[in-house]
């Protein structure tokens, strides 16, 4: 025969295992929202402090010359730049380099750079024009982007 006490214990254990996970889930969801809010505030504070950087990731004298001219031209034209850019260089075997300019890990300008200071200066002017056009398009797209149900970085 089945003992009444054992039935009570089994029923109480079943109820415990059915109801307890909901309390844990609700608590975890609340803590996730708090963590997400804290991360969003920290990200806003971080982006508010560091703006307008042009990061130098070049390796050779060619890349250094390009970075020098490009950053000089960018600072002259866009004195209050609010976005960070990266100048990245990949040296090639046949005495030259491939230069890429990135914004938020997206390449918007790439060129082959041959040896010579004049070449670096000309390519930096081309990159300035490309950066100006890209940033204008990017800002306009960001302004008119529908973010009703998704955040801007989730697209």
UniProtKB/TrEMBL annotation:
InterPro entries listed in its UniProt record: Curli_CsgE
Keywords assigned by UniProt, alphabetized: Signal
Pfam families (alphabetical): CsgE (PF10627)
Domain of life: Bacteria
Biological function: May be involved in the biogenesis of curli organelles.
Name listed for the protein in its UniProt record: Curli production assembly/transport component CsgE
């Amino acid at each position: 025969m089945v003992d009444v006490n054992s039935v009570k214990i089994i029923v109480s254990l079943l109820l415990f295992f059915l109801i307890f996970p909901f309390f844990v889930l609700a608590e975890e969801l609340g803590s996730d929202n708090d963590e997400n809010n804290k991360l969003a505030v920290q990200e806003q504070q971080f982006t508010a402090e560091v703006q307008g950087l042009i990061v130098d990731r070049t390796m050779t004298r060619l890349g250094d010359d390009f970075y020098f001219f490009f950053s000089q031209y960018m600072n002259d034209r866009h004195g209050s730049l609010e976005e960070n850019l990266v100048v990245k260089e990949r040296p090639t075997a046949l005495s030259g380099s491939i230069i890429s300019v990135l914004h938020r890990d997206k390449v918007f300008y790439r060129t082959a750079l041959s040896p010579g200071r004049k070449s670096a200066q000309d390519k930096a002017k081309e990159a300035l024009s490309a950066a100006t056009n890209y940033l204008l398009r990017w800002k306009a797209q960001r302004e008119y982007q529908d973010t009703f149900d998704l955040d801007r970085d989730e697209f």
